[in-house]
Amino acid sequence: MKILLVDDEHELVSTLAERLSFRGIQADWAISGEEAMRLAEKNTYDVAVLDVKIPRIGGLELKRRLQSKLPVLKFIFMTGHGSEEDFRNCSAETADGCYLVKPVNIEDLIQKMNELVKVSEVSP
Amino acid sequence: MTVLKKIKPKFWDHVDAASGPFAYLFNFRRMWQLAVLLTVGVAVVPLVAMTAIDYQVTQKSIESEIALRISRLVSNTRRAVSFFLEERRLALDFIVRDNSFESLNDPERLQAILKNLQTSFGGFIDLGVIDTLGYQRNYAGPYRLEGVDYSEQAWYREVLERGVHISDVFPGFRQVPHLIIAVKHEVGGGSPFVLRATLDTERFNQLISHPEMAEGGDAFLINSEGKLQTPSLSHGKILDTSPLPVPSFSPNTELIETEDAQGQLNAVGYAYIEDSPFILMIVKNKKELLKPWYKTRLQLMGFLAASITIILVVILGVATYLVNKIYVADQKRLTTLHQVEYSNKMATIGRLAAGVAHEINNPLAVINEKAGLIKDILNMREESTKDEKLMNTINSVLSSVERCAKITRRLLSFMRNSGVTTERIHLGETIQEVLTFLSKEAEYRSFQISVHVDEDVPQITGDRGRLQEIFLNVINNSFAAMQDGGHLEVTAKRDKSDLVSVAVKDDGCGIPKADLERVFEPFFSTKTGKGGTGLGLSITSGLVQELGGEISVASEIGKGTIFTIVLPINNEKKGETVS
User: Fold this and answer.
1) CA-CA distance, B116 to B107, in Å (whole number)?
2) What's the mean pLDDT in B196-212?
3) Which residues of B touch A87 (CB under 8 A)?
């Protein structure tokens, strides 16, 4: 399973990627939308974990762009804000329960990613 | 007093609770007074003026009609009396022309003439023929009056001078009232003689006692000395002196007003009868004459009083109704204004809280990951795993992060409910949720809080955010009223089939009776100057109404207060009330 982490908080994504790698999950990270797009061009990923508020481009827009590049990619949104509007928009774009409010427990995150990947394997 | 209290409109004792843009727009009591005064003035003044004018016009016309009636009566009667006298004078005139002095001197002839006169005219008592020298030469009648000398008498000289004489009425020998008519005749160039006749006044009286006199009137003749010449109903017997003064001479019918001995006003019409000493007097009681006028006047006044009463009742009613409506509208306007202000405030606080939560959540996530990383690293190094102290420290950092996360999440979820959404709500959960926000304060001030929700309380349909605000406001209010260590009881139970009621009971300071009615009024606050905005309960009441429910309050000073919120289980009104 290969993961793409996007958040403008460098400390957060780098640490999270490191911790995931301890658990046998390969994770790349980016701190901007442009960087994420570049990574997506070079590699393929199973799941993308996006912050809702990414500077300039925004999490939802980034999701759409990534999706057009990698149609099978699954998404999990992670946010510190948690406004009603964000919740509704993101819920419409992703599978059930893929809207997580920071701080996120890493075990929960891994479980969610596993679920998403399993679902996609069962029904390709 | 209680009746007055009952009909007293709500706005009468209204006192503004706030000032500036939140004050009421009008002074309702003055508005009412002005409206009533103006409309009453505009309606009643012309009415009174018209009635007064009508009163005067009617009175004048009735008085002139009375005058006209009396003077017509006087003229008619005068004409009848003068005609009567004229007739008899002309009869005598005819006799002296038709008969020569010689034939008149014949007693038999004179007797025959008297008889004819008595038969045709009636009322003739005797006839006498008097020669130039004043001696009665011939006489026919019941008395022996031949040879009487009249030459020195005033009436005889008058006849010689003026050709005719009509005497005053006198009692005569048999105490029967009489009058004398005498005419002079000049025989072709020779000396004149006089024919004199005595008449009784029976026929005369009949002329005067006119049927129109019946209603409170009196008619009689007097002579120039004021002696009654005919009997009267209320002014004395014949030949008595009339109580009325002799009126001054006038050739026409005249009308005067006099006051009689009883102090009653009389209208007196009089006329001097030509060629006679008589003055015709017709007296009518003014009160009797004015009777129809009094009736009209009573009707007029009654109409005026009834109209004014109706006008007053209608104006008072309409003014009170309208001002009350304006009062209610103004009250609604203020309530809406306050709700808008409150929701703006809440929205601002919500945005602020969400922003803060966001700002805190991000570094919190970093801490979470960093601490997690340390823990991961520790887990990987076997010798360090035994370092219990380090492991515990990391775990306590992680659990503190978890605690912070819970707080920010709760804050976010609370503020998220700004839009109106309808969902199934479990009352007990909502109350507990609200209490968690206040748990720190409750702990700090050692309040004892008990929540009891009956088992049969169903889930209700409504807006969770609104319900949370309602409970938060009410419980906050109770907290403010309580001393440290106070007791708060929240009980929810089913009320009838389609209602649930939640009672929030505290043992705080209570609310004075005078304020009890006003606690739900916008901007009413007893905490003014102590940070109270007066928004809480009025907003709460508005929110409860939006949910289709009702809020009420009961309180006793020093004992505590109970707020009771009754909510419908299925709120179907929601769509209409939320605006």
Assistant:
1) 14
2) 79
3) 416
